[in-house]
Amino acid sequence: MTTGSISAAARGVRWTLWAAGLALLALSIAVAITIGPADLSVGDVFSVVGQHLGLGDAGVSRIRDGIVWELRLPRTLLAAVCGAGLAICGAIMQSLLRNPLADPFVLGISSGASTGAVMVVVLGVGGGIITLSTGAFIGAVVAFAMVLLLAAGAGGTPDRVVLAGVAATQLFSALTSFIVTSSADAEQTRGVLFWLLGSLSGAGWHDVLTCGAVCLTGLVVCIALAPALDAFAFGEDAASSLGISVRWVRLVLLVVTALITATLVSAAGAIGFVGLVLPHAARAVVGPGHRLLLPATALIGAIFLVWVDTVARTVFSPQELPVGVVTALVGVPAFAVILYRRRVPA
Amino acid sequence: MSLSTRDVSWVVGGRRIVDGVTLDVADGSVVGLLGPNGSGKSSLLRLLAGVRSPSSGQVLLDGVDLAGIRRRDVARRVAVVEQQAQTELDLVVADVVRLGRIPHRSTWAPEGEDDRAAVAEALARVELTEMASRSWHTLSGGERQRVHIARALAQQPQELLLDEPTNHLDVHHQLDLLDLVRRLRMTSVVALHDLNLAAMFCDRLVVLKDGAVVAAGTPGEVLTTGLIADVYRVRAVVTPEGPGGVPSVRFEPGPP
């Protein structure tokens, strides 16, 4: 009987935590959109948002309206979506490949995307019809398909997937460097480099809606497969003996995470370290069970990237830092702590 | 005969790892699977669990071909304890045992009362109830194997397959673990290296060599000087009526 009442109490605490987490995310977004170089009062910002939500006329100039509704808000929302999506993909990769150092880019997706992007920007592939985002998405999918074929041909075990990913990453990075060094001018190189490091500048509502829809769908699929991910704790044979169709689950999860990652990378570049570090942080908070871990990872990732992007665009204002640089600057020390805590006893 | 095989073979990369094995496991009996390294014990267990599909022949569960049964339904019937299964994750004992409920839970359902009851009962049967919230990584080898057995019991199976569960355990824990398996009174197939342990705890023994069955029967029928010389290439003295009325094997140096 006591166990029943304890777990009921625990469930109450859990719901409170979720509510607090979501409130924190909403608060973070609300605060982040009031911060920026333009001289806008907090009141102006919220009356603009209120106006667009149908809460009466804001009485703010069109330029100021545009700064809030067309620049700051979509950018902040895209930061939240990217943080959530990359963190989930990282958590899944780590569980699926049984590798604490796996991240969403382990399958060569970011380097494939960069090759696609430079082919469009530098070489002019697509004749102006294909945008940088589309080129990046196609590049990412091509790289992922290559990894999948290579890994399947080599037996499909987690270490083969990782090795295939390493091979693809090297190949596409080399192709990107080759194209940039042989053909690009200084201006193009700088633009490509900025994008490669991850940047949320220029985010529009179109990006928010596309990425949001893809991430949400992916999250639902992954949570549905949460018990299967739990079953991988002791390896693939153990998962199989627990009734999991290992090949099927692995394929579905690889494809879903690849599509999420490719969509996010094509919108915001390769924002590193979010997918590597935040799943570990989430595990420390809610434990390794995926039914809780995946939504918690998404929430922590969203809050994290909203703040990191706010720092990236304001610290050296008007000069903007690529958000990937800031995530790495925060991420590397965090990563060092993880490595230290996982150290092998001497 | 709840679990049986009919002329089952498993070929990988042109090598015949399991070669035409036919065996029947009687309900409630403990069958020991013997044979030197590489004789196909682990592979045969994987075929019995349905984790691998046979290249030819059939594995039958209550007379039905395992190939035609959904993985999830197999997992509710047959549970596996691998040798030395490890995890990187920071799990506690109860988390590991709870994995055994996965085949019983539907996609969106939260953990139910029957899940909690099954986990509690499984922990009690292996006498680990007090250790439910201990971290996996702080456990000794013997404790880890007991946790895996508890996880297997949480699956509420009718058949239990164990792959060298006593590997790397000291003598006390080897005896303790096999005594536990015995007391569970479930239909069990146990791959073992130690012939004396096999004689003490198994009702019947099946001996594999190069993937094929070379002997099967009670410990008294199977464990003979000739068979040990043939299969293990060692000289042994077998006392047919050793301690407890089961054969006892002592090895001697030199060629057989």
TrEMBL record, chain B:
GO molecular function list: ATP binding; ATP hydrolysis activity
Keywords from the named record: ATP-binding, Nucleotide-binding, Transport
PROSITE patterns tied to this protein: ABC_TRANSPORTER_2
Domain of life: Bacteria
InterPro entries to which the protein is assigned, alphabetical: AAA+_ATPase, ABC_transporter-like_ATP-bd, P-loop_NTPase
UniProt domain ABC transporter: residue ranges: 3-235
Full protein name: ABC transporter ATP-binding protein
Organism annotation: Aeromicrobium endophyticum
